[in-house]
Amino acid sequence: MNNPVFAANWKMNHGVADAQAFMRQFLAHYARAYDRSVMFFPSALTLHAVHAAVRERPDIKLGAQNIHWEDVGAFTGENSAAIARGAGARYTLVGHSERRHVFGETDEQAGKKVAAAFRGGLTPMLCVGEKLDERERGDTVAVVVRQLRAGMAHIEKAQVASCLVAYEPVWAIGTGKTATPADAASVHAAIRAELNALGGDRADSVPILYGGSVNRGNARALLDAPEVGGLLVGGASLDADGWAAICTT
Ligand code: 13P
Questions:
Q1: What CATH number should be reported for the domain holding residue 208?
Q2: N or C: which end of the chain has fewer CB within 10 A?
Q3: Who's near 22: CB < 8 A, 6+ residues apart?
Q4: How many A from CA of 210 to the centre of ligand 1?
Q5: Is 48 a catalytic residue?
Q6: pLDDT band at 1 (very low <50, low <70, confident <90, very high)
Q7: Ligand 1 pocket residues where CB is under 6 Å
Q8: Which of 98, 105, 168, 227 is flagged as catalytic?
Q9: Domain extent at residue 20
């Protein structure tokens, strides 16, 4: 895949001091490269400090892990796309499996968040993926297609091509179980077909990242699978040297 995207989702890890130390070490080991993109999704409270830490490195992109679907208002504890942008984000995850399955976020809310991201000047990375029971019932493609349709329901057809998509099978997240490159390729092909149905030929350029127990040992094989346009990494992105090694895979 040309120009793969390496995205670190730090989840609820790395406060300001840890993130600053991480960035000093990471930037010392990761030289600017023009054939790939590197992206971080820190905690909302850490985003601004990470933004300052990468000021000299415009090649490093930042995103929020979550945004609210409204632009402003009485939503205690939430952040809008514009607030995230003001703190340095240019991207946001939407519908991460932990948002869906720990916090009960619905397909409909994910769709409203994708639209809110564009209104607030962020590029959404819509996350989709099936749970183990859904996979065992043979419903993987039906689930990801449903999530894609709902996720793109409130944007224009032309905006589909500006999104990123991450396929993260829920059973593979944080479990040490990874989809095989062949499994990932077959679901990514189904995602590509649906993106083309939703957004036309221009959606061919939408990177489809794979996520779920990616590590240094399996990163290359996953990236080499057809239609895998990058990696969305949790646990293995928390160590600066290890993450730099994955980003230079
Ligand atoms: P792990 O890499 O820890 O399995 O997490 C994957 C993930 O959820 C990234 O968004």
A1: 3.20.20.70
A2: N
A3: 14, 238, 240
A4: 10
A5: no
A6: low
A7: 9, 96, 168, 173-174, 211-214, 232-236
A8: 168
A9: 5-247
